[in-house]
Here is the input.
Amino acid sequence: MKKISIINWRFILVCSFFCLAVFAIAYKIISLQIDDSIFLKNEGKKKYIKYRNINPIRGTIYDRNNFPLAVSIINYDLYALKGLKKSEFISINDLISIDGNPIINQEFSKKTLIKKGLSRDEQKIIQNLRNNKLEIEVRHSRHYPLGDQIAPLIGFYGKDRAQEGLEKSYDSVLSGKNGIEKIYKNAKQKIISKPIEVEKTVQGKDIVLTIDSTIQFYAYKFLVESIKDNQAKAGTALVFDNFTGEVLAIASYPSYNPNDPGRVIQKNRALIDAYELGSVLKPILLSTAINNSIFDPDQAIEIPRRLKLNDKIISDYKGYEKLSPKEIIAFSSQVGASKIALMLGYEELKNAYYEFGFSKPISINFPSAAFGYMNTKEKIADKELASLGYGYGLTVSPFQITSAYSVFANKGIYKDFKIIKSDEVGANRIISENSAQHTLEALKEVVKIGTGKKADIRGYTEGGKTGTVHKTSYGNGYAEDAYRASFVGIAPLSDKSLTIFVSIEEPGLNAYSGGMVAAPLFKKIADSSLNYLGYKEDE
Here is the structure.
């Protein structure tokens, strides 16, 4: 009996040890599972938490009437993720038209773009498939409704960000700031929760320009027609509102289509080119001389057939005995302008050109805008002074000369013209109202009896000045057979008016002067613009 009791005790003891061992093993296993579960859970979080940028929508550029000149378009692109099977891809291709023919074996080895610009119906088809190996991404693209009409001014925004024009100048305003969002994906790369915004997206701001799309159309249309009709190479046209101080149009040719991926960029000749303009500077000389009381505006000045200055002979195409200052402008007398420049003096003329905006930054923000150059030696020869008087020896941009002529329309006030609607217009007096009025009368005579007769607009009074110069030939002085024809005009001659500058580079026909080539172009742009703006006839 005792023996049986001992055996039972031993049996119980063995069973107890066995149970304890089993319990210990089970505990260890459970503990490991719990620990591993926590570890794997944490590791899984690390692995499947994704961060992605939220691209802001770039601001729109509008004209003065809220017509879009540059607008961002939202596109939806389809990507195949790593692991998408070939059979699945074929099925998708049967539902929507896939771009191209990607090379795949049994499945995709990396994330691959398979369709750009999904339509709404195509988006619904893909979403209904509920395939976690497909992903739709948002992409913003830039569109320019006016195309080549305004491309050199607006520029463009592409893969390499803002490249040219106002897009580049105001990139910091238009671009906004990227946001960041956090998303959770499971092991199958499926998004399992709503994205969480980590950093807020700052959308780009819109910009409203002073540009009028209709006037821009007229300026570009007639500019291109004139260039082609005259077999010329290039040209510019600008339209300024003298009363408001606003830029209404800036056209430059050759241009390009900013919507074309294969575009070839063309510079904005109105803003980044500066060149000698010749006789269009004579009215500035005249106004300065009158302002400084050098002579009576109605006083006749003797005009010799030949004026010898140092080793240079200056003469006119036609011989004159005497001309009034206004007639010197009307007939574009080189001798007359030279004599006025000599009477005025170098320092006074140099300072006047600077006051009129030459050789200094223009009033609008534009990449690489031209300053121009002026001969500023301490002492210059009489022949050099004379050249400055009739527009040689200094370079001026089309924007600068257009701003300068507005002084005559604005009764002696120089304005810092603006292109951003919200900007302020700076203004200061640089010549007397009397000087400005006499200069306007001279400009009127240019169109009435002088070199600018072809600028006459039926129903309106106008004034302007022609300019014809030999283009420079790099390293070889002036080219004998390459001309630049220009015209700057003001219309109508009233309190509210437009200043319009046009320039044609290298007209290829026998007619190459500012009066023959540029003046008719001014007339077309001015006539269309005045009628569109509702200006009443004043004649």
